[in-house]
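== Folding the chain ==

***
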Amino acid sequence: MRIRRVRGKSMIDALRKVKEELGENAVIMDSEKIAENGVEYYEIIAAIDEPGTPGIKEKSIVQKEENFLTENKILEELQEIKKMIKTLSTPQWRLKREIELLRLGIPSFIVDRILAENKELFEFIKEGCQRKGVPLEEKVRVLIGESGTGKTSVLFKMAFKLKRESKGKVLIVSVDNYKIGGREQFQRMSQFLEIPYLWTDWDEMISCFASIKQDFDYILVDTPGLGKKFMIEDLAEIVRMFREVRFCWTVKATEDYQHQLELWQKIRNFSVSEMVLTFVDKVKKGASLLWILDEDIPPVSYFSIGERVPEDILKIELSDLVNLLTRGLNKTYEGRIGYA
């Protein structure tokens, strides 16, 4: 941009000189009447754009860009201040949230994970269920669990469901020789459901397993309740003799999670491929069950949702698991079980 200061005896004279020097497109930037040595003049300051020189319009754009950059810098500084405030208040915020989560009955090690991942509770549950997934149907299931978990009832429910859905030929087997009257009960129920059964011991079971496997599509095996008569050492012996075994851990959903985790530590080294949760209909709040989202715990395949045999069993979908774990909280998820 070229800038000139021009004087004339009159305003018209000054404008004529501007036109002569800068041309028709000159821009008047300032003008005034001055006196010098007793003589009056009219002075004009004018300018003209030149190629390669930022003009008035360009100057305006540059100014806007500078203003924009300044505003951005202010916003960045505000964000930094917010981060500093959050950092200063984090210990108090974390402690408050930790107390809230623990009051819901969530296991402490799961609370630590929620806080470490800095996620909302419902988001954590939903993502945890998605990571777990739902296991496929096992061809051979050996049900294990403590006495009173409803293991035998689950076996009949699962067997009947497989039969009803025409999944294939089903055989139920019991090696529980400790239960008084157990054999008669097992026989009556198998006849009622019209499902073939085998009452045997492990040695016989293993010796005839190859032929059994050829005749049936699904084999479900009931075992004694884990305890003094049927111990962890017995499971180890079964695994040694029966390499193809896959255990299905039957868990009472209303049982204290610490007790379940203690039992899990004892059986975790065996081939436990899935879990069945029983007494699900008795669960008031699902938060205490969040321990099942731990990566080390096998996925859940079935819910036992009542005492009726064979009806009260559900092959779960992810929405069912989310519904159970959020039961009793203020927010609900869509699913086939409308737990509130």
Notes: The mean pLDDT is 83.
